[in-house]
Amino acid sequence: MLVVIVLIVVCLLSICVYRYLDGILSAQVQLSSSEIGRPSNVKVVGTAVVVGGSISGIIAASTLSPLSKQVFLIEKRKIPEDSSVADQGNQVHIFLSCGIDIIAKIFPNFIDAIIKKGAVRFDALHDCKSIGIEGPFASCEKGEGGVYGYSISRACVEVVIRRLALETFKNIQVIDEAEVIRLEGTKDHVTGLTYKNLDQEEITIQSDLFVDASGLYGISARLLNKQYGINIEKKKVKSYIEYISCRYAPRPEYKVKNPIIFYRGHPPHKPYGGISQLLEDGNLIIMLGMFKTPMSTNRESFEDFFKEKQMHLISEIIENSDPIGSVFSFKKEGSQYNYFENLNMKGMIALGDAVCSFNPVYGQGMTCAAEGCLLLDQLLRNRKPFSCQEYQKRLCKIVTLPWLLATNADLCFPGTQGGSSFQRMMIPRTIKANQEVAVKLARSKETHIDVAIVMNMTEGTGWRILTPLWLRKLFGYPIVPVMKPGYPVW
Ligand SMILES: Cc1cc2nc3c(=O)[nH]c(=O)nc-3n(C[C@H](O)[C@H](O)[C@H](O)COP(=O)(O)OP(=O)(O)OC[C@H]3O[C@@H](n4cnc5c(N)ncnc54)[C@H](O)[C@@H]3O)c2cc1C
């Protein structure tokens, strides 16, 4: 009898754990069955107002446009014609294939438009070069894994999307140089906002839906606190990352072999890495990413670092190219998650970096922003009433896996602060698993494909890393270093 009861309890627990994990690992909305970007005769939102004219804001406005009578897009800065409006917009940005798929569905001309600008499609697992401490990742045949990308800068992506949005969706009105300073409504229902323009005039817009896409220092969290004393709880993992970058023009006789070269940092003792990314104009942006260690923006020390640390492929590019402009840097504290799902507020949602801002080295930010818009579209088109809290809860599930992938890896570097006590308890195991994965990435094509697919947030792939094989990697081995003495190799 006791055995039967124990068995039933174990079964019930397993079902609960399975359902919980499945809720996270299969949380993404299926793009293939989504109507995002398509016209709709039914306007489920009267007036929508989106705050933040950067990537999340433009995608959100374009998502809302077919379903709303009028969409206002409010941006505090002047929106430049040919570059990104965001501070980080000139740094290396890799747009994951999953994010590109969403954008291409909203704007069927997106791929043609970026190709016209000079972007070239590449097969991420075949054409790009990734090097870890075990050496180059196992090589894959063209087409294996289906992970792809384009040689394109963040600025170009943003400029093209902005242009397509304004050409396609005529009911979007952009108001730039307009800083949102107040929420309108009550403490449980946002009914609009007030912004201040350059002439210091205060202008109020009434809205049925307010979308906060104002980035990491999101405006709604600040205003909710200031106006109503509501505190949006935050969780942070502080890894103190710095990007130091410079653009280079390859000399005519030098042929760039790989659209992306990626030297992967490795916890715990290799807190730096390098990237070379080919851009649409044929130039390259070369970036050094450092955890916690301040770096100078002196060109000589920047270029020497790649030599000293044996990032030979990047040094080769530098030797065969001419620098364009100076070395520039961007510092970020780490990853931050804002618990909007705890807020029970009508008329308002938040997405993009305003909800979840990652350590950028994992390249997830723009794709998570696009995922947030896909979810919004699905809920609005369902036409079943949903609360804003429900939206935030679903979004939380979508970003949980990318959040865990990014923050778990960061926590393995000594000195990273924050994270849950469970995550911190798991650090030795995660370091061990990371080492196992590093070995496998270099030796096994299958592991390389699995990791790339999951890191690229390809739809419904979360279960790939919870197979018995992967769990064995995480829990099954004793915690002893697997690296041979003399590592790292680069
Ligand atoms: C160095 C670096 C490298 C990165 N690399 C990658 C990468 O490789 N791949 C990737 O996918 N992501 C990357 N990211 C992340 C990516 O940049 C962000 O995820 C993305 O820009 C988020 O966009 P957003 O629109 O949510 O926020 P943001 O781009 O930060 O934009 C917020 C906008 O809101 C505006 N705003 C703020 N307050 C107000 C107000 N009160 N009124 C009106 N407007 C306001 C701001 O001016 C800004 O334009 C990187 C980030 C950094 C820092």
Provide a brief overview of the structure.
The protein is of the alpha/beta class. It has helices at 2-25, 55-64, 97-106, 110-116, 154-168, 219-228, 299-308, 312-319, 365-382, 388-411, 421-425, 427-443, 445-455, 468-476, and strands at residues 45-51, 68-74, 121-123, 129-132, 135-136, 148-150, 172-175, 179-186, 189-196, 202-206, 209-212, 234-250, 260-263, 272-278, 284-291, 321-338, 348-350, 356-357, 417-418. The strands form four sheets. Strands 4, 5, 12, 13, 14, 15, 16, 18 and 19 form a nine-stranded mixed β-sheet that branches. A five-stranded parallel β-sheet has the order 7-2-1-11-17. A three-stranded antiparallel β-sheet has the order 8-9-10.
Q: Which ligands accompany this protein?
A: flavin-adenine dinucleotide
What Rg is obtained from the alpha carbons, in whole angstroms?
A: 23 Å
| Contiguous uncertain segments of 5+ residues | none
* Global morphology: globular
Query: Can you identify the CATH class of the largest domain?
Result: Alpha Beta
- The total tally of domains equals 3
Family: Belongs to the flavin-dependent halogenase family.
InterPro entries: FAD/NAD-bd_sf, Flavin-dep_Halogenase_NPB
GO molecular function: oxidoreductase activity
Protein name: Squalene monooxygenase
Verbal overview:
The protein has 14 helices and 19 strands. The protein starts with a helix and ends in a 14-residue tail after the last helix. It has helices at 2-25, 55-64, 97-106, 110-116, 154-168, 219-228, 299-308, 312-319, 365-382, 388-411, 421-425, 427-443, 445-455, 468-476, and strands at 45-51, 68-74, 121-123, 129-132, 135-136, 148-150, 172-175, 179-186, 189-196, 202-206, 209-212, 234-250, 260-263, 272-278, 284-291, 321-338, 348-350, 356-357, 417-418. The protein is globular and about 60 Å long. α9 (365-382) runs antiparallel to α10 and α12 (427-443) packs across α13. The chain has 490 residues and is an alpha/beta fold. The model has no long low-confidence stretch (mean pLDDT 91). The protein folds into three domains: 45-122 and 152-235 and 335-399, 3-Layer(bba) Sandwich (FAD/NAD(P)-binding domain); 238-333; 407-476, no CATH class. The structure holds flavin-adenine dinucleotide. Residues 51-57, 74-77, 85-86, 88, 91-95, 179-180, 213-216, 219, 243, 330, 332, 352-354, 360, 363-367, 369 line the site of flavin-adenine dinucleotide. Flavin-adenine dinucleotide binds next to α2, β8, β16 and α9.
